[in-house]
Amino acid sequence: GWTSSSVIDETVALIREQVGSERVICALSGGVDSAVAALLIHRAIGDQLICVFVDTGCMRAGEREQVVDTFASHFHIPLVVVDARQRFLSRLANVVDPEQKRKIIGEEFIRVFEQEASKLEEEHGPIPFLAQGTLYPDVIESTSHDTASTARRIKTHHNVGGLPEEMVFKLVEPLRTLFKDEVREVGLVLGLPEEWVWRHPFPGPGLAIRIIGAVDEGKLETLRAADKIVVEEIRNAGVYRELGQAFAVLTPLQSVGVMGDFRTYANVLAVRAVTTGDFMTADWARLSPNLLARISNRVVNEVPGVNRVVYDITSKPPATIEWE
Ligand code: XMP
């Protein structure tokens, strides 16, 4: 039968056999899959693993700090944080089209990652292996657009940006035989914090596709503050785990409000929360009116630039989960 400790032992043995004494590089996204993949590989080959976290500037509040605290401070795994916020932000300037945003972020991610990998090779010698958090369902359905398939492009798009040398990695995919619930179980056994293990999925392009219209630093700051409140209140109400995803969307729509003696004219924030099995279909979550009231009050009072909160009551289909 399936037990997480036998899966861990078998996977660790397979990784050792595949990698030997060579180096592995792993891009941490902040999500469950890359984290569990990294922990398994680290258990197998220790400091032959180097993790890289690319800060795109489109991450949620505290995300970078959590990766550093957990991986570097707690697990003592070699971790390089690349602050690429300005690069991403300047490429995203004035870009409105969602698919264009995705393309830019995907390409820039690969460039930044490859540059970092080259630097690390100069420092430490060859890094022949790239870790990927590919799950069993991705192996069968290789068209899914989650973070695993984003990472997979690193191998195939190695000429993006006319980089001098092409990087072709051999893949290490320790989660290839596992389903999501098994990955979570393995994560828990390996000591990944519960909060991380149960984290909702977060799209690779991040907050950039949750700001409708052009992305800039001010809007990112606004959305980050609002999203933090949404997630905090949902956690405090004890319903986070029942939801498939819950987040804030910053709309470009401005509306009139009143605060004290003043008339305000500021943005509308949308709250999205869904229940779902497979993310192909989803139902809008029946969050309690009191929870919605707490979210709304806090956002309007605490987040400058937002004076109205609306709740998205559309299911998928016909709507998608994300707004872009
Ligand atoms: P939609 O909006 O299509 O989302 O209902 C379904 C699931 O996919 C995620 N999603 C993405 N994930 N890169 C990703 O890594 C993307 O560009 C992307 N777009 C949507 C979304 O968050 C949801 O979980």
UniProtKB/TrEMBL annotation:
It is an enzyme of class 6 (ligase). Pathway: Purine metabolism; GMP biosynthesis; GMP from XMP (L-Gln route): step 1/1. Residues 2-199 form the GMPS ATP-PPase domain. The keyword Nucleotide-binding applies. It comes from the Bacteria. Its EC number is 6.3.5.2. ATP binds at S29, G30, G31, V32, D33, S34, A35. It catalyses: XMP + L-glutamine + ATP + H2O = GMP + L-glutamate + AMP + diphosphate + 2 H(+). The keyword Nucleotide-binding applies. One of its GO terms (molecular function) is GMP synthase activity. Keywords: ATP-binding, Glutamine amidotransferase, GMP biosynthesis, Ligase, Nucleotide-binding, Purine biosynthesis. GO terms for cellular component: cytosol. Homodimer. Catalyzes the synthesis of GMP from XMP. This is GMP synthase [glutamine-hydrolyzing]. The gene is guaA.
